[in-house]
Amino acid sequence: MNFLEHFATDGRVSTFDLQNIFGKGYNEYRIYLKIIDGGGGGYMGLRVYDNSNTLVSGNEYQYASKEFKSSGSYDSTWFSSNADQIAPIVTGVNASKQGGGAVIRIFNADIAKFTFFTFEGVSQDSNFHAAVGKACHKTAEIISGIRLVNSGSKELTATIYGVE
């Protein structure tokens, strides 16, 4: 695993762009997210930038996820075959700086094939939350980066690695 880049937001933001992070010849890319300040709850989704650095916000995503909560319930309604984003990467983060994070694994970013994702996220508010899922950008194209989309605002850091 090779370190590629590190990014940080300047305070809480509603979107966090990680552009031009792919195209370095790796089979897999891993993004480690650290949540500094959750900014009031909600969830975090993901969209990709295509090879021309255009944000893909059309219905080109397919995902299946589950949210687990320490309250004893879980939410299995996170799935779609024609979505405008992948969600949830993380859920339930509040503004009391209790932290959290996620690992996102990306496959086929550098080749004109479908791009696949796996992700795991954890956070804390009045309950512990864990989100796990798998997803696909179902257009055969090279991607150059991602945008993390927050419902609410969050202060984040992201560290990107390439895996051969």
Q: Write down the CATH class.
A: Mainly Beta
Number of domains: 1
What is the average per-residue confidence, as pLDDT, rounded to a whole number? 89
The run of helices and strands is EEEEEEEEEEEE
Summing up helix and strand content along with how strands pair, one would put the structural category as mainly beta
Question: Which fold name corresponds to the CATH topology?
Answer: Jelly Rolls
Q: What is the molecular shape? A: globular
Strand content: over 45%
Radius of gyration: 15 Å
How far apart are the termini? 7 Å
Low-confidence stretches: none
Helix content: under 10%
Count every helix, treating DSSP H or I runs of 4 or more residues as helices.
Answer: 0
Write up this protein.
- With 164 residues, the chain is mostly beta strands.
- It has a single domain (2-163), classed as Jelly Rolls (Sandwich), CATH 2.60.120.
- The protein has no helices and twelve strands.
- It has strands spanning 2-8, 13-18, 28-37, 43-50, 55-56, 61-69, 74-83, 86-91, 100-107, 115-124, 128-137, 143-163.
- Strands 1, 2, 3, 4, 5, 6, 7, 8, 9, 10, 11 and 12 form a twelve-stranded antiparallel β-sheet that branches.
- Strand 10 (115-124) and strand 11 form a beta hairpin.
- The protein is globular, with a radius of gyration of 15 Å.
- It starts with a strand and ends with a strand.
- 38% of the residues are buried.
- The mean pLDDT is 89.
